[in-house]
Design a protein that fits this description.
Length: 103
Amino acid sequence: MTTLLSTKDVDEEVILTFDFTDGLASGEALTSIVSTEIVVNSGVDANVALVLNGSPNFYTGNSAVSVPVKGGLADCSYKVKVTCDTTNAEKRLTVTAILPMNR
């Protein structure tokens, strides 16, 4: 499932929150952030990696991840995907969101 985030102005620096609660059973928690990926969803941006603004961190009792972002190009949208391991050794979760941009 992919979530559509609120539109971000290219001049803003914001924190995106990826909530994994729906995928966690009672007593489970996130244990490590395996990867954070960003790609262009629509439009053209040769420097897409520059939209990430630092490292992701656990948020809200290890059931969510915060991802800082900045910049981007007007009229582009970006797909941001966060993958985490959990306290259940047989479970790895991914949350994906679309981040639209404007000026």
